[in-house]
Amino acid sequence: MSLLRTVNVDPLAELPEAEKSALDSHSKVISSLPQRLERRREPRHAACEIIEVQVIGGSGGRFPGTMLDISRSGTKIEIEKPLSEGAYLEIVLPSRAIMIGEARYCRSANRLYYVGVKIEGVYFTQAVSARHVSKELLAGYKSLPPLTAMEVGNHLAACSRCRNELAALSAE
User: Fold this and answer.
1) Angle CA(14)–CA(18)–CA(19) in degrees, nearest 5?
2) What is the CA radius of gyration of the chain?
C-alpha cells in the first residue's frame, strides 16, 4: 500500500474570496510590468573566478571581487564597493589574464555591488607561443568558453602551426 497519492485539488479553492481577488489583482500588476529586453548578442557563461579589481587612474588600489559570468565582449563582477558608470577597470585573474574594460552599470544588492563590464582588451600572463593548442581544443574552438576562446585566439594570432592545424580541421 502506497502512502503517496495523487490529488487533483485547486490550491486556490480553499482561499476566501477576498484573498483570491487580491492574488488576481497582484497577478495582473506583475503581468503588466514591462519585461526586460535581452540585448546581449553573445551567450553568457557562468564563472566563479576570484579576481582583483583596480580603477584605472584611481587611487584606491586593488580590491577583491568575483567574476560571475563572462561572454566574448563582457563580464559581470561582484565587488564590495560602488563604482561609477564609465570607470575604466583593470581586472586581474591571478596567474591567467588581465582584462581592461569599462563599467557599464553598477547595481547594489545586499551590501554587494554588481558591475557589468564591457571588455576592451585581454592580456594573458602566459607567453603566447609557449605551447601549442591541442587538436581537440581546436576542433571545438567555436564553442569554447569565452576566456578560453580568447586565449586560443591570442595564440592563433601568433602561431602559424596552430592556424594551419585549425584550417585543416575546418576543411575536413
Assistant:
1) 55
2) 24
Same domain, 110 and 132: no
Whether 59 and 94 map to the same domain: the answer is yes
- Domain containing 49 equals 45-124
Same domain, 97 and 114: yes
**What mean pLDDT is predicted for residues 108-124?**
93
Q: Quote the strand ranges of 29-148, DSSP E.
A: 45-55, 63-70, 74-79, 88-93, 97-109, 112-124
First to last CA, the chain: 60
Counting every residue written for the chain, the total comes to 172
52 burial level (CB within 10 Å; 0-12, 13-18, 19+): middle
For helices 146-158 and 160-171, what crossing angle results, to 10°?
110
Cell digits of residue 48? 566563479
Say if residue 16's pLDDT is above 80.
no
Residue 21 lies in a domain: no
Bin 164: left if φ > 0, else alpha if -120 < ψ < 50, else beta: alpha
Cβ atoms of 128 and 159 within 8 Å: the answer is yes
CB neighbours (10 Å) of residue 146? Answer: 21
**Does residue 7 belong to any structural domain of this protein?**
no
Mean pLDDT of the chain: 79
Q: What is the CATH number of the domain that holds 75?
A: 2.40.10.220
